[in-house]
């Protein structure tokens, strides 16, 4: 599972000076956020008020006093604090470790638990409609009918050229997708659509409250359009740190006091309007009641997941939960410029969030950029006053110079967007599965075989075998639409008229690519049919080699069939066709070679490393302390330690010689006892 670490670009000098603030650290595998081993202060936590609610504080505050002593006795505590701590300045801490989803193909490949977070972006083809493809080619994507429209549609709307195709009658630049999954019976009406699917088990206290208050969609619209607060974060992902990145967040406590919910959702396409707050004569009353209930929940929420300052100092991360997804859609190959559409959807409690995009055209490439918006219960705190105390004696003990510092610590609940993934996809019909083939001949046939071709129904994932040079262009399209790691692609046979390619060679092929120059024909029946029949002239008692491919309505070819070795045998009475599978002979295997360094190893023999319990230095000793210099290693007659030996390697084929001069050094590591 991928992991994102986020923490403010810390300006808190005390946390930095005590190694309690994460900072970027260069390592052998890249840059990461780490707690540095620093300890310029001794910190003692004296007393905490717990959460109290003074007038005007919605989420409460903690007032805590700490005692600071310099770890360096020679340091002046007053000067040290003055140079380290900024007083009456807000510090923000939203340190979070967030697990983000991996591509579904990667999760399946590494055999992770089914609960591992994953995502998938793919095109779903239901059926073919050339009339629909032609019609939408002249429209903007946002004008194409959407699955989230309340307008009833049927399959006939998309395949009957005499009827008016459905189009979107509302602005769909910003779409708030209803919670839950769009019913498959509705999606199945569309010829094809792109689906973005995220699977991630999450907590959803926040989302459940919004749903209970019947403000889920209105709150989401308000979140998108409300003014944001800019916070500066260090973000670590994939052994790389983006330092001091400004991220626009929504501060919920400030949001409540500044007005909260919008009065409408104008500018958003929303299908379930009956669940929205509707302005009217009672709008202010309803709005105030809902905001009051929301503020009460937020107070309880902050209290449940509040981190005390001592917990911040102890490196405890924040509580967070998924709130919503936003998916920016770009109708280009680069994902640059402004998105053509943005989809917003609350995260669901069952762990699966899907966005089904029917507003697409065949053959177009789309880029989907997904962000996950998290609720993070962090902190805003400040150092407010300090008092200094000189060296004092208390009974038999002494108290070094120290300072007492008061801190005001508040919960700060924010909604923060985190980049989750970017995926490019081309909307293409999957190539068909290779066809079924049957060879037949009449009893009296002298020079002809009949070939019956039919589709192989269903779908499969397989490699794609290139034969023609044009196949490489198809492969590049399939690369953008695959759902498996490696060279594995989806093939699916759809109901359509059959078009087949026939390749024929007289000489046994040494590779599939040899068939590229021996394309015999492309055939389909003169009437509507998924099958085809081809009559081919052959010489009797002669072997021929055939392969076949199916071509779909968009010109994409299937994998080839097996290689058929076909021979029309004729004797005095009858003729018959002999069909066998021909397998291309494997090329002779080259002798395996290994790098010499992987085969060459020099290690001391056991006699050289065995510890001799009877060596002279051990006689009469009750302890080994101070004896390390006198002790040796090994029981061999001739010790190798301290010697240099030459190892000569001679090639048996070239006669060349390599000499290795190896010195054997016995290293003795002394402890404090030995000194």
Write the topology of this structure.
Elements: E1 2-8, H1 13-17, E2 22-27, E3 30-35, E4 41-52, E5 61-70, H2 77-84, E6 91-93, E7 96-100, E8 102-103, H3 104-109, E9 118-125, H4 130-136, H5 156-159, E10 174-176, H6 184-187, E11 192-199, H7 205-212, H8 216-225, E12 229-237, E13 241-251, H9 252-257, E14 269-270, H10 283-304, H11 309-313, E15 319-330, E16 341-346, E17 352-357, E18 365-389, E19 392-394, E20 397-399, E21 402-426, E22 436-440, E23 448-454, E24 458-462, H12 471-479, E25 489-493, E26 499-505, E27 519-523, E28 532-537, E29 543-551, E30 563-570, E31 575-582, H13 606-609, E32 644-650, E33 657-663
Features:
single chain, 675 residues, mainly beta, Immunoglobulin-like, 13-stranded mixed sheet, five-stranded antiparallel sheet, 13 helices, flat
Q: How large, in whole angstroms, is the Cα Rg?
A: 37 Å
- Gap between N and C termini: 50 Å
What is the CATH first-level class name of the domain at 429-582?
A: Mainly Beta
Spans where pLDDT lies below 50 across 5 or more residues: 273-282
Assigned CATH architecture of the domain at 429-582: Sandwich
Strand content: 35-45%
Tally of DSSP β-strands = 33
What is the SS-derived class? mainly beta
Work out the helicity level. 10-25%
Major sheet summary line:
13 strands, mixed
What's the CATH H-level homologous superfamily of the domain at 429-582?
Immunoglobulins
Shape category: flat
CATH fold node name of the domain at 429-582: Immunoglobulin-like
